[in-house]
Design a protein that fits this description.
heterodimer; A: 730 residues; alpha+beta; 7-stranded mixed β-sheet; 25 helices; 28 strands; 23% strand; globular; B: 224 residues; alpha/beta; Rossmann fold; 11 strands
Chain lengths: 730, 224
């Protein structure tokens, strides 16, 4: 039996509520252990059973996602997913949110988000080679937005730049639904040898459990529980629950961990992320079917008089837990001494199903280990299907010139260089395509192979039509990879939603997962890792559903890269069909401030045909550049290509639709290609053979972006594109 | 050409620099840990890499400059050895007294990572001898503290002794006289903020940075 200490708080209904547990869940705890939990045990249960760690609202639906494929080495459930890239190598990747901490304390919240995702990757034995960030902020005019943008961007840069991982892509959006709840979704990918992967499952009885890395402080106590609560006006009080990052220690921890793995000392290893020591110890024991004993007085602490509760729930950063091969102790410790990091044996594995936590010999927690994760509540929350949206059948009254300049200068479509120039996107000297393109590309060091990375979602589409919106997020990621010449391999999903206890929010989650699942299956991009962030609400209002899709593609040789830069004199070819879908388009939302209509339908078989065609056309030398058509339709896609090479273009309305509808419609499964004139006939033939509609719309060259009858000086487009963001947030 | 790259905790361009040296010389650079008290025998060049040595805590390069290996690097330089410091390496060279002046926070306050155009200010050094004076190179910068400052006396000295190696065509950080890199008084120590090792391969979109490494190979192979 655990010892009760007089100084510990009495567990009241209010205290249970503050731990994010409801009365039914508390009752379940009592039944499981057949007595009242101690203060420390309540903390442990709260850490393990919160939404962030237990996925209790989403698990039922996440199980429906496709996670398998011949390319998959390790799917969801480990620290990150692993995908085979041939030659005995693999890519290890995941995306994770740090939304609530970033809103409370933008710099540290974002920084530690990067730190956490990098640890997930190198814990598995992979050296991080690329990062991305998907950011959603409130309206630029909202009083908090500017401060959040500056803090988050500086936090990401401050951590990632120092650690030394190139930030090669991502996305940034502004929308009023994030006014009180920004989203910071961080992606990291690493490279490993397939025969040198490390997992978290402990094995062997009586094996030492070793604490590695930075010391434990009181920062972040209760962080995972905070992350699973809605915000209200007590938000300032939550600042101490945000962790503080130290990228220099993380860099040393990575080098030391990878060096340690080479010594053969590691049986299993797990980073300390959400709910720190608690989660990592339970995870290792649970996966290995073992119990764990911890003696907390051995934990390296940087603050005095820390209680067992605080140590078990601290989210101090840059820490790992490992099960050690005892005969290798001296060798392992020498590695950590070399890097001036802590190495302390804090416990051992046991045969019993027991999680025993002691402090100076006093038992602070004594729980059945398996129950902590295995018996976590799982809910089939009530949900309602999102009501079908009324189709938009109108055509807005605006000239193509006015529309293009307004759109490309708007915060959502203006150049994001102001952001990514603050991130080191070239460290490691393998970056082949930098941010600002369809996908970032990084060479696999020492080879001619390369990996492409993109992150995508259109929350407006997901709000109007969760199923099609979910499909579209995957389809756009697929297009971005294909437009770069990469074969799509797999995805990671970061599902950001409001309060799942509301049936309409749960309906959005269910719908988006359905759409994502269908698309991942049809496009052969299984989900190998991910994260769910719920309760993204402020004072009862939820964010737009934002299931961010991070995707990875493979290029077997750097010469397969397709750039976005057209050749002056080339023909401009459109692949795919244009029906004129303007519902929920960027034109309506960002120029007319109207979010009306339905999301575009996604034809997954058309997506696949078009994507495969683009990659094949490039391999046969028929295209000089390509770009996917998404937000802002053909007009924005042409303008972005022109800006990439500083050349103009002339585009004709090749349809019976009004010009504005043809140019700004957001029908899916479309690409723009730059095609040498001499190759046009062969290209059109190849497209026909592949069953992909293709038509020449004009050509590249000159100093104007000419859309139907409107001639817009390239310089004016460039000015609007480049000044849009700095004017708002700079 | 035999080269070594010094590795501090927090260095993150050490591999990149080693690759750059190897591409030009055909010989792998030796990686030397900062806790070592001496350099390998027979070196032609010592390179200090970019990154965030000791987290850039205290002041960029200040802690690294006080590590055991730096005594050996200073001795090596004082005996006429060639030393190149890139980015954080430049900061370490200044902190260790091998180069004069100071590197302050960028005038724009923010970290800046982008390609810049460099103008070769002198061809008279082992690092620039395959270039022409006035020749332009595209090389990326990635730093927070690259704003080079010198008092008027030092600036006059650097100018009149032809010790400015590279200038920015479009100054990204507020450096005095657009200075991107400077030479020591014996012209054998170069510190520069831009990263020549990052655009050193046509497959990645640029090869201008290789001129610095090729210059070193050409001068050090001739003298050897």
């Amino acid at each position: 039996m655990p010892t009760e200490t007089a100084a510990e708080p009495v567990i009241t209904t209010e205290i249970i509520r503050k731990h994010g547990l409801n009365q039914a869940e508390f009752q379940l705890i009592r039944e499981l252990i057949d007595r009242e939990p101690t203060w420390t045990e309540l903390g442990i249960f709260s850490a393990m059973w919160n939404e962030h760690c237990s996925y209790k609202s989403s698990k039922l639906w996440l199980k429906t996602l496709p996670v398998d494929g011949p390319q998959v080495i390790c799917g969801p459930g480990e620290n990150a997913g692993i995908v085979d890239i041939g030659d005995g190598q693999c890519v290890v990747f995941k995306m994770e949110s740090h939304n609530h901490p970033s809103y409370i304390e933008p710099y540290q919240g974002a920084a530690t988000g990067i730190g956490g995702i990098l640890r997930d990757v190198f814990t598995m034995g992979a050296r991080p080679i690329a990062a991305m960030n998907a950011l959603s902020f409130g309206e630029p005019s909202h009083p908090k937005t500017r401060q959040l943008v500056h803090g988050v961007v500086e936090g990401i840069g401050g951590y990632g730049n120092c650690f030394g991982v190139p930030n090669v892509g991502g996305e940034t959006r502004f929308h009023k639904s994030y006014n009180g709840n920004c989203l910071v979704n961080a992606f990291a990918a690493g490279l490993a040898n397939t025969d040198e992967i490390f997992y978290s499952a402990a094995s062997g009885i009586g094996m030492p459990v070793v604490y590695l890395g930075a010391k434990t402080g009181r920062d972040g106590v209760g962080g995972a529980t905070m992350a699973s609560a809605e915000f209200d006006d007590t938000i300032e009080e939550k600042r101490p629950t945000v962790q503080v990052g130290d990228p220099f220690t993380e860099k040393r921890l990575m080098e030391a961990t990878l060096e340690l793995m080479q010594t053969g000392a590691v049986i299993s290893i797990q980073d300390m992320g959400a709910a720190g020591l608690t989660c990592s110890a339970v995870e290792m024991g649970d996966k290995g079917g073992l119990g764990v004993v911890l003696d907390l007085e051995k934990v390296p602490c940087r603050e005095e008089e820390m209680t067992a509760y605080e140590m078990m729930l601290s989210e101090s950063q840059e820490r790992m837990l490992m099960v050690l091969r005892p005969e290798k102790e001296a060798e392992a410790k020498a590695v950590f001494d070399k890097w001036d990091l802590d190495f302390a044996i804090v416990g051992e594995t046991i045969a019993e199903d027991r999680f025993l936590v002691r402090l100076h010999g006093e038992i602070k927690a004594d729980l059945p280990l398996k129950a902590l994760s295995g018996e976590a509540p799982e809910y089939d929350r009530p949900w309602v299907k999102t009501a079908p949206a009324q189709p938009y059948a109108d055509v807005p009254d605006i000239s193509p010139a006015e529309a293009l300049l307004a759109l490309i200068g708007s915060p959502n479509h203006a150049s994001k260089a102001w952001i990514w120039e603050q991130y080191d996107h070239m460290v490691l000297a393998d970056t082949a395509i930098r941010p600002g393109s369809d996908a970032g590309v990084v060479r696999v060091h020492g080879t001619e192979k390369a990996l492409a990375f993109t992150s995508d979602v259109n929350p407006r589409f997901c709000f109007a039509n969760p199923v099609e919106g979910g499909k579209q997020a995957v389809a756009e990621a697929y297009r971005n990879l294909c437009a770069t010449g990469a074969k799509p391999l797999a995805t990671t999903d970061n599902l950001n939603f409001g309060n799942p206890e509301k049936p309409e929010i749960m309906g959005q989650l269910v719908g988006c997962i359905k759409g994502i699942g269908e698309a991942c299956l049809a496009l052969d991009m299984p989900i190998v890792s991910g994260n769910v962030s719920l309760y993204n609400e402020t004072d009862g209002t939820g964010i737009h559903p934002t299931p961010t899709i991070g995707a990875v593609g493979l290029l077997s040789n750097l010469n397969e890269i397709i750039r976005m830069k057209p050749q002056s004199g080339d023909k401009l070819v459109l692949l795919g069909e244009t029906h004129g879908h303007l519902g929920q388009s960027a034109l309506l939302a960002d120029v007319f401030q109207q979010e009306i209509g339905d999301a575009p339908k996604v034809d997954l078989s058309a997506e696949r045909k078009a994507g495969e065609l683009v990659r094949n056309l490039h391999k046969t030398g028929l295209v000089s550049a390509a770009h996917d058509v998404s937000d802002g339709g053909i007009a924005l896609a042409v303008a972005e290509m022109c800006l990439a090479e500083n050349t103009g273009a002339e585009v004709a309305n090749a349809s019976a639709l009004p010009a504005i509808q043809f140019l700004f419609a957001e029908d899916q499964a479309r690409y723009l290609l730059s095609v040498p004139e001499a190759k046009l006939t062969s290209l059109l033939e190849a497209a026909e053979k592949a069953g992909v509609p293709a038509q020449s719309l004009g050509h590249f060259g000159g100093d104007f972006v000419a859309l139907a009858d409107a001639f817009i000086p390239l310089a004016a487009v460039k000015d609007a594109f480049e000044s849009g963001l700095p004017e708002l947030v700079g | 050409m035999k080269s070594a790259v010094i590795v501090f905790p927090g260095s993150n361009c050490d591999r990149d620099l080693a690759v750059g040296l190897e591409r030009a010389s055909g010989k792998a650079a030796q990686m030397v840990w900062h806790k070592e008290a001496s350099l390998p025998e027979g070196l032609d060049v010592v390179a200090l890499p970019g990154g965030f040595s000791f987290g850039d805590y205290l002041r960029c390069g200040a802690i690294a400059a006080r590590m055991p290996i730096m005594k050996a690097v200073v001795d090596f330089a004082n005996k006429g050895g060639h030393v190149i410091g890139v980015c954080n390496g430049f900061q370490v060279l200044i902190e260790s007294g091998l180069l004069p002046g100071a590197l302050m926070r960028n005038s724009g306050i923010k970290f800046v990572c982008k390609d810049v155009e460099l103008v070769t200010a002198t061809a008279n050094s082992a690092f620039t001898n395959t270039l022409q004076k006035g020749q332009r190179l595209t090389v990326p910068v990635a730093h927070h503290d690259g704003n080079y400052i010198a008092d008027s006396e030092l600036l006059f000295k650097l100018q009149s002794e032809d010790r400015i190696a590279f200038r920015y065509a479009d100054n990204p950080n507020g450096s005095v006289d657009n200075i991107a890199g400077i030479l020591s008084d014996n012209r054998r120590v170069l510190g520069m903020m831009p990263h020549p090792e990052r655009l050193n391969d046509p497959a990645l979109g640029g090869n201008d940075g290789s001129a610095v490494f090729e210059s070193l190979v050409s001068s050090l192979t001739v003298s050897a």
